[in-house]
Amino acid sequence: MPSTDIDESVRATSDVLFRFLDTLACQQSARTADSLAATDLTLSQLRMLFVLHRENESVPVNTLADAVGLSLAAAGRGVDRLVGLEFVDRREDPDDRRVKRLSLTDEGRALLDQQFTQHSDDLTGVVAELPEDLRDTFRCTLSDVLSHLSPEKVTS
């Protein structure tokens, strides 16, 4: 197969994938924007919460700052607000009292769980509109793609 065919296949697949993701985003954007705006948090603060959610253990402030692309001072101000809202817990590192470690509180986790549930419900609604045979094909295709990209994360 000539490389131009591969390039065209990649381009065409990327275009379809982009249109698919853009369609999903457009269908969910108003509801998601309203929900996130209601939190009265900045985008950087929301990103901090998502990073802390992804971590399995508490992280130092500098690690969080690096993960969200903020200066240590800016991250510290954001963390202060999140601690004040009781979404984040800040504690001294047991091995080095100069280091402050951060983790989500139950309230912070509940806020994110609400967001994840809303996204899941939105996606379920989109998928429910598809004919059953298309849903089955779509699920199998996505599972195959995910297996290729990241075999340890796939559940059928």
What does this structure look like?
- The chain has helices at residues 3-38, 43-54, 61-68, 72-84, 106-128, 132-149; strands at 59-60, 88-92, 100-104.
- The protein is mainly alpha-helical.
- It folds into two domains: 1-38; 39-153, Orthogonal Bundle (Arc Repressor Mutant, subunit A), CATH 1.10.10.10.
- Strands 1-3-2 form a three-stranded antiparallel sheet.
- A hairpin with a 7-residue loop joins strand 2 (88-92) and strand 3.
- It starts with a helix and ends in a 7-residue tail after the last helix.
- The mean pLDDT is 87.
SSE blueprint and pairings:
Elements: H1 3-38, H2 43-54, E1 59-60, H3 61-68, H4 72-84, E2 88-92, E3 100-104, H5 106-128, H6 132-149
Antiparallel strand pairs: 1-3, 2-3
Helix pairs in contact: 1-5, 2-3, 3-4
CATH topology of the largest domain: Arc Repressor Mutant, subunit A
| Low confidence ranges | none
Let me know the number of strands: 3
User: How many helices?
Assistant: 6
- Main β-sheet: number of strands, strand sense, barrel status? 3 strands, antiparallel
- Kindly provide the radius of gyration, computed on alpha-carbon positions and rounded to a whole number of angstroms: 20 Å
Provide the residue-averaged pLDDT: 87
**What top-tier CATH class of the largest domain fits best?**
Mainly Alpha
Total individual domains: 2
CATH architecture of the largest domain: Orthogonal Bundle
What is the element string, with H for helices and E for strands? HHEHHEEHH
- Give the strand order, joined by hyphens, for the main sheet: 1-3-2
Helix content: over 70%
Note the overall shape. Answer: elongated
